[in-house]
Amino acid sequence: PLHASRRQQRPGRRRRCSGCRRFPEEAAVRSQQESGKMAHEAPFQLLHSELIHYICKSADSTDSENGRSVTKLENLGFRVGQGLIERLTKDTARFKDELDVMKFICKDFWTCVFKKQIDNLRTNHQGIYVLQDNKFLLLCHLSAGKQYLEHAPKYLAFTCGLVRGALSNMGVKSIVTAEVSVMPACKFQVMIQKV
Amino acid sequence: PLHASRRQQRPGRRRRCSGCRRFPEEAAVRSQQESGKMAHEAPFQLLHSELIHYICKSADSTDSENGRSVTKLENLGFRVGQGLIERLTKDTARFKDELDVMKFICKDFWTCVFKKQIDNLRTNHQGIYVLQDNKFLLLCHLSAGKQYLEHAPKYLAFTCGLVRGALSNMGVKSIVTAEVSVMPACKFQVMIQKV
Questions:
Q1: Contact: B2, A43; criterion CB under 8 Å
Q2: With an 8 Å Cβ cutoff, are B79 and A50 in contact?
Q3: Of A67, B39, B89, B107, which has the highest C-beta tally within 10 A?
Q4: Do the chains contact at B5 and A170, CB–CB below 8 Å?
């Protein structure tokens, strides 16, 4: 009864990795470094999944209930974002301008939480920023394709709040929304609210 | 409005670090490495705090309500522990015996989640193990001393579930409880349930 993982030793069944959803032979290509990284981010990623599970348990329910769950996740993210940015900016210099703040979110902040940088940052220079992550950590455990697209809002709400909370603590009021077309890529749109 | 952290720039007030609760002059002694580590573990730690806040919001309530909150946290931890051990043991060899399993929990598993090993593992060789962590990550943000002792169960329930879930996925059924005498040190007691 003391096997490392009996489930994965059952013969005759081709199992995907529970983390990256690749089959073992593909996954074996992963470098040591990548696998170390994966384990490192796993506690946060799994806790986030269970949080969604906990908050949205009555998920096959009405739209208004789903809406409330998404709002709860967003608010929770907001507070985590506030706490996180306070730690991250403790020793940083002041930021020059709004764009400088957004770059910090795309690099340092994103790396701290999601172990990679944002792949693409675009702006209309009028207060709208679009942050694109081509392989978003919190979508990676869902199958690629369109199968789970309808569940995407649940998996993105926490992060929308996270970004809004971080910006808010840096004195930037914003509205943050997210959009997925093909998993696990997604875009976060930040609309700065001038005060 | 774009300062890194205006709150920390307010003059005339001696502020503790929001992470380790030390004053800046003490905190400055921290090595770069330690501060990098701190940022790394922050998302998980903050998410855990907010989870407690969310689940125990009506916390100044009856004992039975508190009990229910603690059970919810424990169950959530259980599922995270299951998921985590599955990833961590994917490439490991079989475990020799129960003690071997416990050592894996104290080293690899603990390091993955809490960024340090268990400081002391004791056993009566009859199915009881005591894991002692002298500086437990999820208690580090509470003030040391006895001030918050009554809140400790909330902060330990998730981890009790985490250990129970991990062991359960390795075929070891157990009861896990926790005990704090002086923050941020704590002991987890694992009682193996023979089947």
A1: no
A2: yes
A3: B89
A4: yes
Rg (chain B; Cα; Å): 18
Cβ–Cβ of B87/A170 closer than 8 Å? no
Chain A CB contacts of B17 below 8 Å: 90
DSSP-derived 3-state class of residue A122? strand
CB contact under 8 A, A86 and B38: no
* Residues A168, A160 contacting (CB under 8 angstroms): no
HEC letters along B27-90 = HCCCCHHHHHHHHHHHHHHHHHHHHHHHHCCCCCCCHHHHHHHHHHHHHHHHHHHHHHHHHHCC
Please report residues of A whose CB lies closer than 8 A to that of B31. Answer: none
Instruction: State which residue of chain A sits closest to B15, comparing Cα positions.
Output: A90
Q: What residue type is assigned to position A5 of the chain?
A: S
Question: Which amino acid is residue B1, in one-letter code?
Answer: P
Q: Name the residue among A35, A84, A195 with its Cβ closest to that of B46.
A: A84
Going by C-alpha positions, the residue among A109, A129, A132 that lies closest to residue A185 is A132
Confidence of residue A118 (pLDDT cuts 50, 70, 90): very high
Q: Is the dihedral of CA A170, A172, A175, A178 positive or negative?
A: negative
Q: Do B80 and A50 touch (CB under 8 A)?
A: yes
User: Does the structure show a pLDDT above 80 at A162?
Assistant: yes
In single-letter form, the type of residue at position B24 comes to: P
List the domains of chain B with CATH numbers: 25-192 (3.30.1380.20)
Q: How confident is the model at residue B106 (pLDDT cuts 50, 70, 90)?
A: very high
pTM comes to 0.79
Token readout for B26 is 């003490």
Residue of A nearest to B46 (CA): A80
Q: What is the pLDDT of residues B50-77, one digit of tens each?
A: 999 999 875 566 778 888 999 999 999 9
Q: A134-155, pLDDT tens digit by residue?
A: 999 999 888 776 777 888 899 9
- The secondary element (H helix, E strand) that includes residue A53 is helix A32-55
Searching chain B, which residue's CA lies closest to the CA of residue A43? B113
Query: Which DSSP category does B112 fall into?
Result: H
Single out the residue of B172, B170, B166, B165 nearest to residue B191, CA to CA. B172
Q: How many angstroms away from the CA of A33 is the closest CA of chain B?
A: 14
